[in-house]
Design a protein that fits this description.
Layout: H1 4-28, H2 36-44, H3 53-81, H4 86-109, H5 119-149
Length: about 150
């Protein structure tokens, strides 16, 4: 696959699927955390609409957009620095992206302000972003390996 836009889009969708599935499983197991799709829905909707079916759908679409943006960042880092240690670079890039969005943009824009007083949500976000970074980097590395063989 030679198209970099398609590569980052697919990697972003994979990353969002991993992130949302992991957070859903954590919620099923009773971990008290705010889901990424509700945080993403808070960007677009008034508080009364966030926990509705439409809010969840909008939030899931928002997580795909954010994951795709993170995949763009990972792709650029890998293109600049090379694909050795791609997983480590993916983890570091996605976590840095998460720290920027959760630590700077969310408080500044007053997006899901309750997250700042939820240590469990922040720890779970770190764990899930680490796994998401791994998935995105592995997908991009696979695309790059296949491109060389074509």
């Amino acid at each position: 696959m030679r198209d970099s836009a398609l590569q980052v889009t697919i990697a972003g969708i994979i990353g969002a699927a991993v992130m949302d599935l992991l957070m859903y499983l954590l919620l099923l197991f009773g971990v008290k955390t705010t889901s990424p799709w509700l945080v993403a829905a808070d960007v677009f909707l008034a508080p009364g609409y966030i926990n509705t079916a439409s809010g969840v759908v909008i939030g899931l679409i928002g997580t795909v957009a954010l994951s795709t943006a993170a995949a763009v960042a990972v792709y650029l880092i890998l293109k600049i620095t090379g694909y050795d240690y791609a997983v480590l670079k993916g983890i570091l890039t996605v976590n840095a992206f998460g720290f920027i969005t959760m630590g700077m943009f969310m408080p500044t824009l007053k997006i899901a302000p309750q997250v700042q007083s939820q240590p469990v949500t922040n720890f779970m976000a770190l764990l899930v972003l680490t796994i998401t970074g791994t998935a995105i980097a592995m997908a991009l590395r696979i695309f790059n390996t296949r491109k060389i063989k074509e």
